[in-house]
From TrEMBL:
Protein name from the UniProt record: DBR1 enzyme
Gene: Dbr1
Subcellular location: Nucleus
Alphabetical list of SMART domains matching this protein: DBR1 (SM01124)
Protein family per UniProt: Belongs to the lariat debranching enzyme family.
């Protein structure tokens, strides 16, 4: 079975599908499945644009809305995970996964599915330690913190995935597993992206959570994106016992979807020739979701997953063959995922733009049906309940405070306070540029849905690579650290014109007193954003 893998899509669905069609015309190669490793940008309307954590100049409607409305249909089954530039309000509707458009399936916060017998897993978002141990508490309309924390990986998703025992064929993450660069041509990587050097040498580049999953799951393939550079690695895993067969993972990071970029990869994957062509649930994953349902948390309080440390009565939530059999019996051995896509928001109409459309918290019927079928907690329904309880508690306390004012007594602040606007959450990968006006009000930020006819891409077969049977990795891993300068990007001229020194970049957030914070970002992020500007002008 031929599987196409794409990096950051950034809403350019037409470009991806046109490239696949070109591949078929020129080389008679037709992929059976397309995987996308995040930053998919399933933007349906102007309200969705407001929920994307990007500078205003990157808020463009792109072409997903045409697939959402039914004007177009994906020519190949597409499965994707979320990244850090998404319409978070849309993806939040489907925490356990679901269809965002006909033939386009989102894996959820974390998920495992099957296609033609191939087991495919993934985890959405990027890792940030300050949010890792929180629950999924965010909901639209987001504030300046939650618009970012909404896409941060949580420990509960990693914990669920670590309960899996059966082999995984393909796994996707948006950010790279930490340390994976030590298993590939590190010298070549630093030659292409010299601003990675400090993080590579300090072993801080990438996600420790993804690294933990890589070592536990040991999938045959692992695909990532996020850093906008292509990189291959081969990791031989250690065996836990003499009886265990050696396992290895072929890792590949993909570039972003832009013209003249090597953003698409085709691989041949062994599959079950007797399996159907439908996307299917994975019985073990469903059983794990049922086993861990009691751990669902929708608060922003930090907490640890159960461990074998004497503090928890139960720490092993892996499932038995009997539990898996029960799932199969519940489904009458029919694992086919129903094609139950439903429109849950108005679709963008180029002839009637609505720049003031506001996002709302929506309960998706697909999630309602899924939770009812398997006896799971609907996370969004739980969040709605928490909001209502918080609102009721707040009203009661206000009345109590008014009554106590006459006696001079003071009421303690409500433990259900939901105003997070004063909290700061600095994320080096999530920045606002100076030219965007610094800290902007997310409720009034401009959106630009104008590219109804995005720039024509000169599609060429150079955008596609066929992966060989084995990913060759150079053994030359030496690094030359003698005075290598920061890689110059197309945006550097603009920097020099503005200031003789490196201009600072503002991030959304503030200190504990509510004052706007100004901090410099990591060199690699500055260079990545500058490179994006260069790509936009190509």
């Amino acid at each position: 079975m031929k599987v196409a893998v794409a990096g950051c899509c950034h809403g350019a669905l037409d470009k991806m599908y046109e490239t696949l069609e070109l591949l078929q015309r020129r080389h008679n190669v037709r992929p059976d499945l397309l995987l996308c490793c995040g930053d998919f940008q399933a933007v349906r309307n102007e309200a969705d644009l407001r929920c994307m954590a990007v500078p205003a100049k990157y808020r463009h409607m792109q072409t997903f809305y045409r697939y959402y409305s039914g004007e177009k249909k994906a020519p190949v089954l597409t499965v994707f995970i979320g990244g850090n530039h998404e319409a978070s309000n849309h993806l939040q509707e489907l925490p356990y996964g679901g269809w965002v458009a006909p033939n386009i399936y989102y894996l959820g916060y974390a998920g495992v599915v099957r296609f033609r017998g191939v087991r495919i897993g993934g985890i959405s978002g990027i890792f940030k330690s300050h949010d890792y141990r929180k629950g999924h508490f965010e909901c639209p309309p987001y504030n300046q913190q939650t618009i970012r924390s909404a896409y941060h990986v949580r420990n509960i998703e990693v914990f669920k995935l670590k309960q899996l025992k059966r082999p995984i064929d393909i796994f996707m993450s948006h950010d790279w597993p930490r340390s994976i660069y030590h298993y590939g041509n590190k010298k070549q990587l630093l030659k292409m992206k010299s601003f990675f050097r400090q993080e590579v040498e300090s072993n801080t580049l990438g996600s420790p959570a993804a690294s933990e999953l890589l070592q536990h799951l040991k999938p045959t393939y692992w695909f990532s994106a996020h850093l906008h550079v292509k990189f291959a690695a081969f990791m031989q895993h250690e065996t836990n016992s003499k009886e265990e067969l050696p396992k290895a993972t072929k890792f590949l990071a993909l570039d972003k979807c832009l013209p003249h970029r090597d953003f698409l990869q085709i691989i041949d994957v062994e599959h079950d020739p007797n399996a159907g062509d439908s996307l299917e649930y994975d019985a073990e994953w469903i059983a794990v979701l049922k086993a861990t349902n009691s751990l669902v948390n929708v608060t922003q309080s930090t907490w640890n997953m159960p461990e074998k440390n004497g503090l928890h009565a139960k720490w092993d939530y892996s499932v038995t063959e009997e539990a898996i059999k029960e799932v199969l019996e519940e489904l009458n051995h029919d694992l086919k995922i129903p094609c139950n896509f439903t429109l849950t928001a108005a679709c963008y109409d180029p002839s009637k733009p609505q720049k003031n459309m506001e996002p709302v918290h929506t309960i998706n019927p697909q999630t309602t049906e899924f939770c009812a079928q398997f006896g799971l907690t609907d996370i969004n329904d739980r969040i709605q309940q928490a909001k209502e309880e918080s609102s009721a508690r707040g009203e009661c306390e206000e009345e109590e405070e008014e009554d106590m004012d006459s006696t001079g007594s003071a009421e303690e602040p409500s433990e259900y306070n939901t105003d997070n606007s004063g909290l700061s959450s600095f994320n080096p990968d999530e920045i606002m540029l100076d030219e965007e006006g610094g800290d902007e009000d997310l409720s009034t930020c401009s959106v630009d849905p104008s590219p109804d006819h995005p720039p024509e891409f000169s599609t060429s077969f150079s955008d596609i690579r066929i992966m060989p049977d084995s990913m060759a990795v150079s053994s030359d891993d030496a690094m030359d650290s003698n005075n290598e300068e920061l890689e110059k990007s197309g945006g550097s001229k603009e920097v020099e014109e503005k200031s003789s020194t490196e201009r600072s970049l503002k991030r959304i957030g503030g200190d504990e007193n509510g004052n706007s914070g100004v901090k410099k970002i990591k060199r690699r992020n500055q260079a990545i954003y500058a490179a994006e500007d260069e790509d936009k002008t190509d």
